[in-house]
Amino acid sequence: LRGQDCFGRIGGEEFAVLMADADPQAGSALAERLREAIAGIDARHGGARFHVSASFGIAAAADADFLLDRLMARADEAAYVSKLAGRNRVSIWQGAADAVDPARAN
After folding, report:
1. Of 13, 14, 36, 77, catalytic
2. pTM score of the predicted model
3. pLDDT at residue 63 above 80?
């Protein structure tokens, strides 16, 4: 993360990164690096190995449209698209249609 980025736990197994002055492609690149790092974790417990993966949703706020609740809802919709499309991937919010059409996931 960059020095100005903010990372936090939203709840349960959900986390968020707020990136000021970044476009969706920069967010997607960061999410992809995080996704690959998480997928590379060698998780073990009690002699059993576990596969770890993460699904990411990216949303950008236009200057005239910055409401944190709306931004988080959009990112959540994009993450849901990632999950519907098979998990362990990154999706950028493209509009409300993405929430129901995993074929459009990035």
Report:
1. 13
2. 0.79
3. no
